Amino acid sequence: MKLEEQIQQRSENKCELCGSEDSLRLYEVPPVNGSTTDNTILICSKCEVQLEKKEELDSKHWLCLSGSMWSEVPAVQVVSWRMLNRLRNESWAIDNLDMMYLDDDLLAWAKSTGDHENDTTIDFHKDANGNILQTGDSVVLTRSLDVKGSTLNAKMGTVVKNIRIVEDNTDQIEGKVEGQLIVILTKYVRKQG
User: Is the whole-model pTM more than 0.70?
Assistant: First the structure.
């Protein structure tokens, strides 16, 4: 029996974290040295984007950890422990962490990525309306901007396609206007689409 079939059977075709039956896929819990039933789980797309920090944490969604933390599957235990730590500003998460036990090997695995040390306040690049921006998005300028060191004036309403986020500054993105790569403040754009 293939790995995917084994995990689908084990999970009864439900997300092993929240129980959802929508948009399921296999997720290898890092760090991984080859996929096994012990280090791979079936998760939904909502859990995946939050695990991978592509979306702000929705603490209500993660109330499901109160049940999944008791799973016999090592990878589910590890992910539950990591997420409870990321949500440690919630009293229910602290209560669950106090009850949860991982043996030394599982605890070492859970701590190995350092993910548990990151708090819930992940900074995202957001447009003027609070929409999360990602590399490759298209944005519209909400005001005319003078480009420093240039005679270029980027007009309000200009569409900037295929932006790049500036990794170390959530207030800035990069994009081409009239063929010139410029840095744009996120508060002066809105996501197109």
Answer: no
